[in-house]
Amino acid sequence: MIILAVLAPIISYSLGSISFAVIFTKCFSGTDVRSHGSGNAGTTNVLRVSGVKAGILTFICDAAKGAASCLIGMFLFGLAFGKDQTELCRLGSYVCGLACMIGHAYPLFFNFAGGKCAATGMGVFTVCCPLSFCFGMACYAVSMLITRIVSLSTLIAATVAVVVSCIVNGIIGGIDVPIIVLSILFGVIVFSRHKANIIRLKNGEEKPLSIKRNT
Fewer beta carbons within 10 Å, N or C terminal of the chain? Predict the structure, then answer.
């Protein structure tokens, strides 16, 4: 049964490799999202290329695969080591959440050209640290209302989510090293994938979000 613990992150990486941005853009617009706009296979570029419906579906599905991967990890690690091994089950959810984020950024099925992991990572937090998800999304919404700049709002949300997770799992609820590491890695992935956006923000060149109107 130990093989299940080995298969869990492989399954989660494969799930993360499903690029809903590419799928929904092809369905709604008959084109590849990576050939338009920023070239990124993520929610924001889908909004620009294919409109609100496709963008919302992309965000929901990207977040859902992050959450599903954590649940898969928890379940399969439970079968492998026993459901009473709660720490190992939680570790399984963290490992699989990370595997899913890597799959989203570097998808096996789409030539390793993926998204920036924000939505998928927030989906991971819905299972691993719901408070991080709530605070992160709230800060994202406020920032978008004020600035309409997606990259800035995403980086703020990611920072808040990581800080809240580290506080909750490092101070308030006792020290949980694996999820603190997962949270920091999430932040590192998101910031590294937004490197070009950060340069544009620094130079004052990042533009507010413009959305294609569905006809």
Answer: C
pLDDT tens digits for the chain (215 residues)? 789 999 999 999 999 999 999 999 999 999 888 888 778 888 989 998 899 999 999 999 999 999 999 999 999 999 999 988 889 999 999 999 999 999 999 999 888 888 999 999 999 999 999 999 999 999 999 999 999 999 999 999 999 999 999 999 988 767 889 999 999 999 999 999 999 999 999 999 998 987 766 54
CB 40 within 8 A of CB 20: no
Amino acid at 125: F
Q: At what angle do helices 195-202 and 177-193 cross, to 10 degrees?
A: 60
